[in-house]
Amino acid sequence: MLKESLSLLESMRASSQQPERLLALHQYDILDTPSEQSFDDLTQLAASLCKTPVAVITFVDSDRQYFKSAFGAQMTTAPLEQGFCPFVVEQSQPLVVTDAPNDAKFHSHPSIDAMGLRFYAGVPLITAQGHAIGTICVVDFEPRQLSADQIDNLQALGRQVLYLLELRLSARQVAITNGALTAVSYGLAATVGDTFFGSLVQQFTEALNVDYAYISLIDQTEPMCMMKTIAVCHQGKIVDNFEYELLHTPCKEILERRSLCWHDRELAERFPTVPMIAELNIESYAAIPIFDHRHEPLGVLAVMDTKPLRNPLLTESLLTIFSLRISTELQRQRDQVQQADLLAQAQAARQQAEKANRIKDDFLAVVSHELRSPL
Known about the structure:
Shape: elongated
Structural class: alpha+beta
Order of helices and strands: HHHEEEHEHEEHHEEEEHEHHEEH
CATH superfamily of the largest domain: GAF domain
Radius of gyration: 34 Å
Helix content: 40-55%
């Protein structure tokens, strides 16, 4: 029995430390936060519906359980080994233990003696991506049963917990996005021309906390074959521009799709024939096409990092908004060149006209003199 219990605990610990599950949990920034009435209302309702003295919303971290709300109990954290919530997370299925000391699987669980726990019912909190990050559960110190309706109610409350988490996450991301947009816009307010492009990629590396940001344009002498950067930033510093072949690169994928593209991890595995990706140890990449006024592709605005990309909402917002700003600036520069060419042509034409007028005046003066002179 001891060997079986140890095996159960080891399996539970391994499940709790899965990297993708932990990333899903940590994105909500919910651990060690102050109590919130909206979560407390749900645990109170869970206890009332299930007629238990205790109800808890638990988030399972890599090495502990964090109790966001605990109705009928005073606790904030506990080791993974204490309680049944980590097992619910491991299985991603509801768990009901009607009488723990007499349960074939959990009769030797340490919570029985440490907490006097007899009854437990918990349902997993599963994100839209399928990661179990915690539970909402009810606990009693006497054996009991739950009806099918009560379990359904508990699952409905679990969905409300996830809804609250998504609301908190959305509000935080909107605040971060607005702050970043303000910071980048302020940093670019007085810049135009080539200075603008350099300032933009610098602002991107800072706002998105990425290693690289760059603007790359299609080489018009070899359309859809070569790309040339016009601004590159590495860890906050402007570095030399470079050119590269477009074939088999993520840039080609973006230009063909004509839309934003996102690779949050394992970029080298997806594009094994691009040496630069492996040489720079690039893990993730996001970019968007830059279009001209006819909606023809000019190039890409891209960010790259040596770690998985975070905050897709902020990244997508910045790329979308400032790709349009880049397009506008490129068009302004082209208009300036065209205006300069037209001005030069007009000046040359005026000089030619003035020269022709001088020749005509000289000719008329000679003819007039000859006509007035006696034979």
